[in-house]
Amino acid sequence: MSTATFHYEQRRLENDLVALEIFEPSVHAAPFVEMIKAHPDMFTYIPFPTINDEADFMRLYEGISSSPGDCLFAVIDKVASPGEVGVNGKFAGVVSLIGTNKDDAVTEMGVIIFPAFQRTHVATNAIGLLLLWTLDPPSAGGLGLRRVAWRAHAENAASRRTALRIGFEFEGIARWDRVFPRGKVALSAEALRIKNGTQEEQPGRHTAVFSIVWDEWDEKRPQVVALMGRR
User: Fold this and answer.
1) Cβ(190)–Cβ(219) under 8 Å?
2) Which end of the chain is less congested by CB atoms within 10 angstroms, N or C?
3) Topology of the domain covering 3-228
4) Phi and psi torsions of 214, nearest 5°
5) Which CB contacts under 8 angstroms, 24+ apart, belong to 132-141?
6) Please, are residues 228 and 166 in contact by the beta-carbon 8 Å criterion?
7) pTM of the full predicted structure?
8) How far apart (Å, rounded) are the C-alpha atoms in residues 47 and 137?
9) Would you tell me the crossing angle of helices 121-135 and 214-228 to the nearest 10 degrees?
């Protein structure tokens, strides 16, 4: 990824358990596409486009890498033993920052953890590393942002539980927040068709909105760090 396009200098983030590497297509794209094809259920609640091959993925990646508001990391499990799923047995998923606005000092976090690494230390540490980087002040090596958002399909109970466990505050439900691909968990598009007169409009979703903000970070930070230390 060209780090010059992101609002901030993207860098490797890590602790003893997990590393967030800058996503490198030549290393990470092929195993990521394999995982997408093997586990399409990972995207039941995520508005992810259809990916049939690396070419499809690279079209998506080019949009991410060219946006100053977005950046993508590969999640590497430093505890995983050889022979497990992924690059060198350790490629455990991806995390991203989405819609980062430097003027307002806000961003949104996105997380996809592969099935073999779910319900382990991986997600907590990947999320924690992103929170430390985004919310810690520059004097402590962070970006000093004011707000990190977490958005989940309103019916995605697992994602909502994760957000609350990490320390995100529930803000409410954004109703009919976005369109959602056919064949996934979505609200009917019929009312939308009636409204705008089209026949090809996609179904939609309600979105549960969570956040952690800067004036509560000093209180929440020790809790996040403590969670990251558990296995």
Assistant:
1) no
2) C
3) Aminopeptidase (3.40.630)
4) -65, -35
5) 132/13, 132/221, 132/224, 132/225, 133/13, 134/97, 134/107, 134/109, 135/212, 135/214, 135/217, 135/221, 136/217, 136/221
6) no
7) 0.88
8) 32
9) 150
Of 116, 150, 114, 118, nearest in space to 131 by CA = 150
Structure tokens at 212: 């952690």
At 53, phi and psi to the nearest 5?
-160, 180
Residue with tokens 């505890």: 79
Say how far residue 108 (Cα) sits from the centre of its chain. 8
Cα–Cα distance for residue pair 219/223, rounded to 1 Å: 8
Q: Which two tokens stand for residue 43?
A: 């995207």
What is the C-alpha separation between 42 and 48, in angstroms, rounded? Answer: 10
Domain ranges for the chain = 3-228
